[in-house]
């Protein structure tokens, strides 16, 4: 049986702890209905809301947008979101992402392909993907004529005000705020998914930061490209290639690449200790938040570093920064031998730990 613990910023109830106070010591999350946490395969965070994808359903906590009745204050517990199409059928969800005040998700079509993209919430910079006249949606709406016929959405990523989708043929489409070039050369707001051209390699993964997008090709080859703002040397400091990567993540101003050997490569903003500290133990999983990172070590410990003013890196010291060092949030040696930490998550100053307990 898996249990989820959360800590950090919680003013909108986004940690789903049954209250709205920040916490620096992990607390067990609350749910309105029973969730099989063993089936959780994605955790995504917007500005003040958190999404769990479990068993083809999305559970949400916090606030998506105050101005939306159904999608306003969801509350301080995880609640299953009932997405239905025009015929009233519940939609099985394949993947999800979150912008500042919106939810994006994909659904399988009748052929079992992840080829239907829906959005709901608020998007003042085109991130809903439905054209310039659609800035608020209280009901999930299908993004028309996307992806192109016969293709699937293989990866979906978003940040504050833009989103990208990686397709089954290696193409990438972006929409939303593109003024810094984060969704290609247009450098303007893009209101519907538009193909990003001139990449030179087949893309398999994408991550989004506040004003940039990082696209990765085949892990064995290691192609990558950073689009958008070069603030914090995000483009100029990026390696030419990075073969052997296992997972990737992006904060608002930093990029983090977990290698197969457990090393963590990172570059970008580091004024609050966001980048991987020297001497970091071997890591098996990472979760990158807005300005902090969690790492699950190969020894089974959970570490945190970066900007932690809200307790998202553990008890607050040194003005909240965990810089050039890391906090041990949870150590396997201090728990029951039968308990294992199996995953981590991170959002906007929010942190999450997945713990596996023996079945009773």
Describe the structure.
Strand 21 (283-288) and strand 22 form a beta hairpin. The protein has no helices and 26 strands. It has a four-stranded antiparallel sheet with strand order 2-1-26-25, with no helix packed on it. It is mainly beta and 360 residues long.
What's the average pLDDT? 94
Low-confidence stretches: none
Please trace the helix and strand order, writing H or E for each element. EEEEEEEEEEEEEEEEEEEEEEEEEE
The end-to-end distance, rounded to whole angstroms, is: 8 Å
Q: Approximately how much helix is present in the residues?
A: under 10%
What Rg is obtained from the alpha carbons, in whole angstroms? Answer: 19 Å
The class by helix and strand makeup works out as mainly beta
Main beta-sheet strand count, sense and barrel state? 4 strands, antiparallel
Structure annotation, total helices: 0
Strand order of the largest sheet: 2-1-26-25
**SS elements, strand count:** 26
Strand content: over 45%
Q: In one word, what is the shape? A: globular
């Amino acid at each position: 049986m898996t249990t989820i613990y959360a800590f950090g910023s919680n003013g909108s109830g986004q940690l789903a702890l049954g209250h709205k106070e920040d916490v620096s010591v992990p607390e067990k999350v609350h749910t309105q209905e029973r969730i099989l946490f063993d089936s959780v395969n994605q955790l995504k965070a917007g500005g003040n809301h958190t999404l769990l994808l479990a068993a083809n359903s999305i559970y949400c906590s916090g606030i998506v947008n105050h101005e939306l009745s159904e999608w306003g204050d969801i509350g301080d517990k995880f609640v299953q979101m009932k997405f239905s199409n025009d015929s009233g059928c519940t939609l099985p969800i394949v993947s999800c992402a979150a912008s500042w005040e919106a939810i994006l998700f994909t659904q399988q079509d009748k052929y079992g392909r992840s080829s239907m993209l829906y959005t709901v919430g608020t998007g003042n910079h085109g991130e809903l993907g439905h054209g310039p006249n659609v800035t608020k949606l209280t009901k999930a709406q299908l993004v028309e004529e996307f992806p192109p016929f016969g293709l699937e959405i293989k990866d979906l990523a978003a940040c504050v005000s833009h989103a990208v989708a990686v397709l089954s043929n290696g193409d990438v489409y972006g929409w939303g705020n593109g003024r810094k070039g984060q969704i290609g050369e247009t450098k303007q707001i893009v209101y519907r998914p538009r193909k990003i051209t001139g990449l030179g390699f087949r893309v398999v993964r994408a991550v989004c930061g506040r004003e940039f997008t990082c696209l990765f090709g085949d892990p064995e080859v290691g192609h990558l490209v950073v689009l958008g703002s070069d603030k914090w040397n995000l483009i100029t400091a990026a390696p030419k290639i990075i073969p052997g990567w296992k997972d990737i993540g992006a904060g608002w101003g930093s990029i983090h690449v977990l290698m197969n050997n457990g090393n963590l490569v990172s570059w970008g903003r580091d004024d609050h200790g966001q980048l991987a500290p020297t001497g970091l133990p071997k890591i098996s999983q990472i979760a990158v938040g807005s300005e902090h990172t969690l790492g699950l070590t190969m020894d089974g410990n959970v570490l945190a570093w970066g900007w932690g003013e809200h307790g998202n890196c553990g008890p607050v010291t040194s003005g909240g920064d965990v810089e050039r060092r890391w906090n041990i949030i949870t150590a396997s040696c201090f728990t029951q031998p039968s308990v294992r930490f199996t995953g981590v998550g991170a959002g906007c100053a929010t942190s999450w730990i997945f713990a596996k307990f023996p079945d009773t």
